[in-house]
Amino acid sequence: MAKVIVVTSGKGGVGKTTTAANLGAGLALLGRKVCLIDADIGLRNLDVVLGLENRIVYDLTDVVEGNCRLRQALIKDKRTDNLFLLPAAQTKEKDAVSPEQMLKLTEELREECEYIFVDCPAGIESGFKNAIAGSDEAIIVTTPEIAAVRDADRIIGLLEAAGLYDPRLIINRIRPQMVRQGDMMGIDDIIEILAIELLGIVPDDEDIIVSTNRGEPVVLDRRSQAGQAYNNIVRRLEGIDVPLMTLEEDGWLTRVKKAIMGRS
Amino acid sequence: MLWLDPHAEFDDVFNQLQEKLAVSKDFWQGVTVVLKQTERECCPKEKAQLEKLMGEFGMALKEHVADNPSSRMKTTREVDRDYALIVRRTLRSGQRVHHEGSVVVLGDVNPGAEVVAGGDIVVLGTLRGIAHAGALGEETAVVMALKLLPTQLRIAHFISRAPDHQDAPEPQGPEIARIRNNLITIHSYGP
Ligand SMILES: Nc1ncnc2c1ncn2[C@@H]1O[C@H](COP(=O)(O)OP(=O)(O)O)[C@@H](O)[C@H]1O
Ligand SMILES: [Mg+2]
């Protein structure tokens, strides 16, 4: 059964697009057939992160408006055979796609792929509602900042109201050093408030910026820590039990472990 | 429930009611008011006046012809604190519960969430958001939580907020907040 997973956060700039790109590329590398939908209409950048910008002819809006067939709009990744992107229109309004259209689209894609990720726009307005319409699972991305966690909490409530239960959490841009010094919210503090399953943690890593600019998802780079982190998350999505990665500071790691164990 | 005192002038009752309502405006949103006419009947003009007032506060007026003439006469309804609403989930940021009686939350009240009750508030979890007990003026109302870390606490018209420095000690067990000497005070609660 194909899974449609929306990647969402409430707050902007926390790493939704980065996460969608890396989970998609990682799963494709494992042989899964994956489609990424860029639902951030008007602010698309999933194509840039994947280095596929120059291949766009049709977009999501063209498909729902019937200007082209779904297959025509899907862009095949240049590195892996089984990763596809349905790009967002850059020139349209956020609610150019209705929830019904989104649902129909994801149903059609279920026939083609095993995993479908929807890269959700920030905010809680129509763009968010349209993006989640066809999804049966949600991944919440947050950073260890109070405002981001607050927005994540709000999103979890809204997802529940829309019938999407038990979202899973990725905490992005962790800086072990800062957590250790007590200058950044710890993983256990975040889990205590949000009380949802932790799918993984991703360190703050320059490699992400470098890879984003190069259009190469960091998950393809085996030597990078962030790449490793995304790889672990990919395998957890596949049902493999992967322990949390060690990020030198062991005091920090034990706290993380405690947070995960305590809630599962 | 709204009882009309049979001996009072309608205009006095009306003005008094208006004042009471204005004190806690938001609280009344969506409330249905039952007009109980025991020994006092409203004429249609009075009824229309009441209806308009209720409308201004987002309430609906329903009529109820009395069955029990010995029922107490009240110009405003009395809050029944023993009548509690049970909330069986965690209230997340942006979610708000209000109830004219007491509220019991079986879960947490997260930062950005709000509970407003005419009576007491009991949180069987961590209270990090805003709680307003005795929202209709009941100063003996209390707020209790297994872990009391609110952003802001209100009881009747008293307000207190969390300390600005974040490293205040965490509570070691259940706590109760109530008004003592015109201040909201917090005590540990338990055997
Ligand atoms: N773990 C990380 N380490 C360093 N930079 C990151 C990390 N995650 C995201 N970024 C950077 O943060 C910015 C916002 O990320 P993006 O995925 O576009 O967020 P969103 O889609 O939620 O708006 C990008 O410039 C991205 O390269
Ligand atoms: Mg984005």
Structure description:
- The complex is a heterodimer of chains A (264) and B (191).
- Chain A has 264 residues and is α/β, with parallel strands linked by helices.
- In chain A, 42% of the residues lie in helices and 16% in strands.
- Chain A is built from 12 helices and 8 strands.
- Chain A has helices spanning 16-29, 46-49, 60-65, 70-73, 99-110, 126-132, 146-161, 176-180, 187-194, 206-214, 225-237, 250-263; strands spanning 3-8, 34-38, 75-76, 83-86, 115-119, 137-142, 168-174, 197-203.
- The two termini of chain A are 25 Å apart.
- Chain B has 191 residues and is an alpha/beta fold.
- Chain B has 2 domains: 2-63; 84-188, 3 Solenoid (Pectate Lyase C-like).
- In chain B, 28% of the residues are buried.
- The chains are: A alpha/beta (264), B alpha/beta (191).
- Magnesium ion is lined by residues 16-17, 40, 45, 119 of chain A.
